[in-house]
Amino acid sequence: MALLLFQCAFTGCVIAKWMADTFALKVAQAFKESVYRRLGAPSMIRHDLDPRFMSEVFQAFADMLQSRSRATLSYRPHANGQQERSVKSVMASVRVYFENPLQQDWNELVERLIFAINNSVDTTRKETPFYLVYGWDARSTLTAMTTSMRGGFGRQSDARAWRRESSRQQEITFAMAKEYQASEKEKRAKKHNDALSRME
Question: Superkingdom of this entry's organism (predicted)?
Answer without folding.
Answer: Eukaryota
